[in-house]
Amino acid sequence: AQSVTQLDSQVPVFEEAPVELRCNYSSSVSVYLFWYVQYPNQGLQLLLKYLSGSTLVKGINGFEAEFNKSQTSFHLRKPSVHISDTAEYFCAVSYYGGSQGNLIFGKGTKLSVKP
Amino acid sequence: GAVVSQHPSWVICKSGTSVKIECRSLDFQATTMFWYRQFPKQSLMLMATSNEGSKATYEQGVEKDKFLINHASLTLSTLTVTSAHPEDSSFYICSARVSRDNEAFFGQGTRLTVV
Predict the structure, then answer these.
(1) Cα(A102)–Cα(A18) distance, rounded to whole angstroms?
(2) Separation CA B93–CA B37 (nearest Å)
């Protein structure tokens, strides 16, 4: 069965420090990969996505992620975080050619940025 | 980017009553809409996939008679929680898919509290 694993449920970090949020997926077929951010009591906002092409994907708010097929990973990075980055981050995968391209989400990583 | 509007953003209802949640794609036509449920501090769980003009496809374990989904037009899908009970209290989020590249845009979510 397909699955998405976010290895860290919580990541505390100081402001202006770099951060990496880890995501691994299991799949035997081609995938599309996404990172979403969720602020309290709000829906999800797309940070970035990988559909094809360059494995390094740049998104909004200074985030980027790298698709590593051999390691089945899609880790999210930001070189310098801000207080406003405090939120829940979800990695998601959609399987190309799947029934309807449904998104399968990881359990989320809560990023807490401290001054 | 594409905008998905979900209404209401929050609702409180009495046990035994029904509640309708609307999901609208404001500036694009969505042939497919998805309904998710999110429990506190957990990930999004897909409830059902809704295609315009046809019956929704429900995920295993989701009661289709309790969670009625209607996708009557390319810009509107509704989720009706029938005979709501306190255990139905949750955060419900819809998303709409723009095209076959599997990108989905999310509504802002609806916080349902059943008392």
Answers:
(1) 32
(2) 6
Other Cβ atoms closer than 10 A to B48: 22
Number of H helices, E strands in chain B: 0, 11
CB-based contacts of B28, cutoff 8 Å, min separation 6: B2, B96, B98
Write the pLDDT tens digit of every residue in A49-83.
888 888 999 999 999 999 999 999 999 999 999 99
Residue A98 has pLDDT above 50, yes or no: no
Q: Do B49 and A102 touch (CB under 8 A)?
A: yes
Cβ-Cβ contacts under 8 Å for A2 (sequence gap 6 or more): A25, A26, A27, A93, A95, A104
Q: Where are the alpha helices (DSSP H) in chain B?
A: none
- Dump pLDDT digits (tens) for B21-38: 999 999 888 888 999 999
Which among B46, B103, B107 has the least Cβ separation from residue A43? B107
Among candidate residues B112, B82, B85, B103, the one with its CA nearest the CA of residue B4: B103
d(CA A38, CA B44): 11
In chain B, residues with a C-beta closer than 8 Å to the C-beta of A46 are: 1, 103, 105-106
Q: CB–CB of A74/A83 below 8 Å?
A: no
Tell me the sheet residues that pair with B56.
none
Q: Does B46 touch chain A (CB under 8 A)?
A: yes
Q: Regarding beta strands B67-73 and A19-21, do their DSSP bridges make them parallel or antiparallel, or are they unpaired?
A: unpaired
Q: Cβ of B44 and A94 within 8 Å?
A: no
Dmax (CA) for chain A in angstroms is: 45
